[in-house]
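Office hours follow-up: a student asked to see two folded examples consecutively, so here they are.
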Amino acid sequence: MLFQIYGEGAGWQLLGWLLVFTCLVLANEFARRSKMGGIICFGVIPVLLTVYFIAIYVCAALGMDWALNNDTYVHMTSWFHYAKLYAATAGCIGFMMLKYKWGIGKTEWFKVFPFVIVAVNILIAVVSDFESGIRGAMALAEYGDRWWLSSENVWLYGGWWNWVNGIAGILNILCMTGWWGIYSSKDKKDMLWPDMTWCFIIAYDLWNFEYTYNNLPTHTWYCGLALLLAPTFANALWNKGGWIQNRANTLALWCMFAQVFPLFQDASRFSVIPVLYADGFMDSAIRPTAVNPTMQGVIAIIALAANVLCLAFIIKRAKEQKKNPYKNEIFTDQKDFQIAMSRAE
């Protein structure tokens, strides 16, 4: 079992997951189906939030109580969350430029942007994974265990699984093929990357879930499961080829929500913690005395194996087809690719 979901609160925890998953699917549909929807989600809202974030930190520096006690200021101080929010939003804007052929979105060279922004997002997470591995080693030398307290007052347990998953993330970047195979859908609702088929999506989802399980353990029920399954669900059923756009949209929108309402995950009836916290709770004021990191190690190995297999499969196909897998599309015989291309202009 991955999470502690049992007892009287289990119904609320399951309801919370269903609400997040459903809202992410619907929010993605709102953002992708029209220019206005995209502009509101990735233009207007981020600008308003940026003003809000700046106001919080300026007022906190001036000693104002409302800012010092603000949930965003207290609970969402990590560099990672801001980097992820703005990197994901930048991806959404770039994808809209490609989809609607705005400005440089018309050019051939800009088609490589989706690869670059996804690679940057993966590297941000890889650095965070490695940081946790290093902090865990430092804690082991100083305290005799691997627990370390993050800047957001969450106890993390850093170990070899962080290094294994970080390597899986690096390999995942190499599993993105057909960098220039970017298209607009005929109905202008989607930016399509047809060569990003189920092979990459499964490898990515496993790696990213393990990343959240390692480094965002108190959030991973939502940002690990619901957030990853929402774009995969849409891609599987009605939006073939649009997975990366779905992923960017849902990630950016979730980061906006979580940055403003962190207690939804951290301290509410919807909160869920993983089995890592063997004491059954996570209190920043109390150093954990029991730990169960088994699933961190198991999932890290699975994620690494999935990415090794995916990359090996890509290399094999590239050799058979005598193609550069990054300049050319290599999954053209797969049904998912063909369905996506039937939607392209």
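And the second, which I mentioned at the end of office hours:
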Amino acid sequence: MRRLSRKKALSSLKELDAFPKVSESYVETSASGGTVSLIAFSGMAILALLEFFVYRDTWMKYEYEVDKDFSSKLRINIDITVAMKCQHVGADILDLAETMITSSGLQYEPTIFELTPQQRQWQRTLLLIQSRMKEEHALQEVLYKALLKGGPTALPPRSDAAVEPLVACRIHGHAYVNKVAGNLHITGHAHIAAFVSHEMYNFSHRIDHLSFGEEIPGIINPLDGTEKITLNDNQMFQYFITVVPTRLNTYTVSADTHQFSVTERARVINHAAGSHGVSGIFVKYDTSSLMVTVSEQHMPLWQFLVRLCGIIGGIFSTTGMLHGLIGFCFHVICCHLKLGIYRPREVRMYRFS
């Protein structure tokens, strides 16, 4: 009884077989079919390899939400070189509440304003990346995914000993400010303004690094590498910045940082012509109420397998239909030619007188 039930079960399974087997004696092979099969297998291999590269790649997902953290401090990272001596220049931060933020975390280092050839090449490369990022926003995702893998983005140190006079001042370090609008200004010292001639003022500057939040190696900020040269001693440079809190989650790093957009403006202070103000460098920043979460995403394995099966099955079915269509057309054309060979010729009658 058990054997009969097993036979019935096997016969039922055979009836449900959607892939019937054909005996090899009934299968006819041809050179054209072999050629099409070779092309199909090659296409499958190439597309499967490309799909594997797509599976290995990742993309960045952006999510937006309201930033509810108003109590924490905002860190500003500064590395600016001004073409003035350190005793003539000072940096201060004033927020919207007229609160003067202490700048004890900033250091003043006498240096040379001109860059070495190696540093100049670094700056040109950085500016080239900046211009490409403005044109192709997807480049920022490449930088996010390459964090901590590439080279350092800081200005390389001078390779030669300084022999020129140190007439410039490098202001670098960080400061913690409230998460409200504020103004970072680099101007001449007010208490020595009466003893220093305005002709000694030169606010030509280079921004080697300016960022907000935690410093992350590999991220290039919009003002990094910016250099402004002026020959006027009453020049005002203004940078209007909108800071967006950003939470970055990639396979290499997880950190809370800040992105920002910037608008630049420069004008000459001339009170006689109606252009009032104070000469110097002013970075006016404001924080956004939205927070961006950037997370690195990867294709699931099941989706990769589904796409791979679709590629293989699609190529197999398409090449089979094309081979059948070409064979049918070839057969029809050959049949017409053969019929033309056996077409009865016209018989001409000749009369003999």
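Two things to take away from it. The two ends are 97 Å apart (CA to CA). The CA atoms of residues 107 and 172 lie 5 Å apart.
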